Amino acid sequence: MAVPAALTSLPVNHVLGDLLAALRTNDTAILVAPPGAGKTTVAPLALIDEPWLDGQRIVMLEPRRLAARAAAQRMAAVLGQQPGELVGYQTRDERRIGSTTRIEVVTEGVLTRRLQHDPTLPGTGLVIFDEAHERNLPTDLGLALALDGRRVVRPDLRILVMSATLNVEAFTAALGNVPVIHSDGQAHPVDIIWAPSSAAAPPRARQRRPQIEEHVVAVVQRALRENPVGDVLVFLPGIGEIRTVQRLLDSELPVSVDVFPLAGALSLADHDAALAESPAGRRRVVLSTDIAESSLTVSGVQTVVDAGLARVPRFDARSGLTRLITVATSRASADQRAGRAGRLGPGRCYRLWRKGENVTRPMHLPAEITQTDLAGLALELAAWGTPVDELTFLDQPPTAALRHATELLHQLGALDEAGRPTAIGRRMLHLPVHPRLARMIDGAASADRATACVVAALVDDRDPFRGRPAELPADIAMRVNAITGRFGDDRADRGALRRIADRARDLARRADVVFDIDRVDADRCGAVLLLAYPDRLAVSRGRVGQYQMRTGGTATIDAHDPLASEQFVVAADLDGNRSGARIRLGAAIGVADLTHVLADQTEQRREVVWDGSRNDVVLRAQLRLGGMLLSESIAAAPVGDETIAALIERVRANGLRIFEQPGTALRARVQFLRHAGDPTWPDWDEPRLMVSLNDWLAPYLSGVRSMAELVALDVEMVLGASLGWDASQRLSELAPTTIRTPTGRSIPIDYTRERPTASARVQDLYGIDVHPMVAGGTVPVAIELLSPAGRPVQITSDLPGFWRGSWAEVRKEMRGRYPKHSWPEDPTTR
Q1: Domain housing 279
Q2: Which of 163, 182, 201 lies at the terminal end of a domain, its last residue?
Q3: Average pLDDT, stretch 670-689?
Q4: 30: β partners
Q5: What is the value of pTM for the model shown?
């Protein structure tokens, strides 16, 4: 169709002939046109009546919902129509497409869903990838699938890649020798003003630029003074900085200047207010993320203030976490931002960094596919079926990140052993959230599914609580209560709460869940969240706010946070540090819910172990999740092999001294005979007995279940029984336990000494004329002679010889000391 008169002055019109010719003879083309050239509005309208389309639709992808809506509204407006007639749009949350619509502006995920449903894309003749320079992950995936679909089933499908500052080399390397058409932009010059501060120095990893917001406010005030007409567009890295700058400007600017935020997380009403022209006599300052770099037209802008920062995701495959970091923008991005000041006439761009630093910035930032979590990509590729190395990607997905993503999908039950999507995985594909959150909604119990939808919408969106992140509570249940209206919270943004509730309803509709806000139970947040983050379960380390992650790392919650005293927490958002990560958003979960959700991964362990606090063996029952202890109970040890083994170990660790009757005398008698030259006697040296405890001791522990019963065991009885009757009789003969004296007394023989020894008062030995012998009469017993007071007098191994020899002197001394006792001259005769 002819380009409407309102668009004929746009620079892209000068190259439309080249574009039309390129697509008539080629299946792919690239159009490079800077911001303001009109490519987004003009190109689809110019191509719609091309003969090769033959009445088919044009599907144009925009990387952002706001841009898709704005592009469709702009085209419809110049045609004098409403969206849904010739031009329509579809985003995750909104659809304005009618029966006569032939140009469909959609967000990237919409194309992926259509391709997965039917790779032939019936009724579609051209796919336009607009703003392809942004290199969003869905753009790269959509392009790879579209190219593969064209190769296999749709050879007639045409593809147009459009961009403001495209890395042409990267695209032509992937797409081949395709025609590249270049369009000039508006000719209006833009003066670059360098307005650096120490706060705007190049960002380092995890470093926050102090006072950047204050510096932005100062430069905005300067820009308004130095440029008395036109509006000011300010580029900031994120919604947090936008809110801070907005608050500061509201108190500093004249009443004739309005301040509007512009970010993807805001409502459609906020978007419309930011994009609308200023009324006569008023000026405005629009505070935007990089959403306004090239996808949108912000009317009336003649001045740009660029903080030179962007917030990008960074995925760490080792920790499995993605964190948002603030980086310096690329030179291409800075040029696009500056170009926004030159659309109406000569403009100015204030850059908040040094001129010399500009040349050190990269021309383009790394593509998102190389930096972020690839779980969603991995699930899409598994459903598509073509091996990743056979697909055409501008940058191949990193192997480590893709492997981690695949492992996660297996853990979530989304893939089978062959790597194909399970029934669960295919249902997850239809929910426009991360696979973790899709699994949570799909896998939640019927009574919990409404709660799961709210939690998914909340986690997928920006935190509805406002304030410094480090000062906000981590408990997701508090936010759910604010969304349901059960408990208010002054920190909650009411608009954000409504947006999350609406998103939850949309997810419920897609998942076929009957949604009732009154059925949402904040106490069930942990139970549903664990379905999404089974790998982010954390258990208290015994100190408030200190947690051990299931994956092995540690995590913290501020000690004053209500969540910090919980035994188990599921972390939905961590700050990304591999060691000592901070849990920014999570929920408590009880053991019962935990074991129910992870029933196939938990393990019941029952073992008899030594309990030092009880000084006894006990039965310890544990519920474990890998290396994580979930619960534990202690009971008396049962009768059985486990208890016997535990008791044997205590004996082995402490020796025979733990017994009240360790059998020392019996063992000494047997060892004496063995050392006396008869090796047939068993070796009952303690080290040997320790080695053979299972042989001689274990059979006598069959009914023993405690240390008290163990130590009461008579070791001498046990060992003696192992000798047998004959050996016991021989032992009594060869190593008797006592010496019988003429007076009728039994004097014990001690075999534990170097030689068998008996101690007795001299009077008890009167009448003995043959020295006591053991070992069959081969070894004399050493006799220790004692005085009436029990004091040693002499030791002899020849008692008759003693009587004949030394006795006279001993008798003389003893008579003097103990005159009342009998001291015969010849003790052998009594």
Answers
A1: 190-365
A2: 182
A3: 93
A4: 161, 180
A5: 0.76
